[in-house]
Design brief:
elongated; 4-stranded parallel sheet; alpha/beta; single chain
Length: 409
Amino acid sequence: MGMNQTPASERVHISFFGKRNAGKSSVINAVTGQDLAIVSSVMGTTTDPVYKSMELLPLGPVVVIDTPGIDDEGELGALRVRKSYQVLNKTDIAILVVDSTTGKGEEEFALLHKFHEKHIPYLVVYNKIDLLSVEEIKNLAMSVRAGEVLASAADGMNIQELKEKIATLKPEDTHQYPLIQDLIEPLDLVILVVPIDKAAPKGRLILPQQQTIRDILERGALSLVVRDTELKSTLDHFLAQGVCPKLVVTDSQAFARVSKDVPENITLTSFSILFARYKGELETQLKGVAALSSIEDGDHILIAEGCTHHRQCGDIGTCKMPEWIRNYTGKEPVFEFTSGTEFPDDVSSYKMVVHCGGCMLNEREMKYRIACCQDQGVPITNYGILIAQVTGILKRSLGPFPKMQELVP
């Protein structure tokens, strides 16, 4: 991904729901003006949620999501329906496509209930009105409420009206805090520590690093990216010239080494901690790390990641996290792992949840996962906070956030 591209996690997520053959895919293609979704008369053509990042005027950067039919049948069909409902957790705008020749049924009303329950703005589209008689269209039009549109993907009828209505539902920026801009001033020097090892993607920076650099640029400050192996010599060079960096931001895995190399008078934090504040709830995740002190043998701990990637030897989630936790607690808990969309609705069996920074998740989904844990009384923390705790530098790593430091003993 280039730095001039909006990350999927920062785009408005527009999800299309409906029964099989209601015409979801046809409506998506009509709204976007592209053949994004496969259209077929065969019921259940869409078997998994399909994601497409694009520009959609007048909304701007969006992710369009086509979902399996909510009336799918059988054991496999039930799994597909579950996948559709999982999409709700990341949906900013929901579009319910109804076959106007049959109207709403039990499945549609159940989905509308979920929209209200999760506070998701939505529209209802009565598709296929080209198949109705003039009299039937008149009768349906008389029953239409605000937030409902009569349309035909086949002939384009009212598709422009639908697009305009979707645009009115665009959510405002809900981030309570920026990523890093409020921590720095123009021309401040920020050093970003990026280890380059076998786990680092070849030829590119990972998303948190890219987003942080972009945020620093927008603030008019200066960013210098170095490896952990060159950090000390870099700092020595600048300090010898009388230049003191305003902030050092490191990859969490290098916390221990970086903390030793960075003088105490220079503020230190991690990409993961910045994202905990930006995308979730830093205080909640900071309090969650305290659960480490009460871990016992056999306790179940969920380690969750928002993305899917090829696991390597020494993988941070499946290898390093369990090792750090075992060494810190002296206990042998049972670890379970999820990635991508596979975050369980029921987390009550876990003693704690340890989540990645969530750079690949939009804000709605990250907050949903945190809320799941809070509602069920399960502590949740994230990678960076846990690593800072087990390496004994948690208080220091919260240097940019004095009020959060007060929560650390």
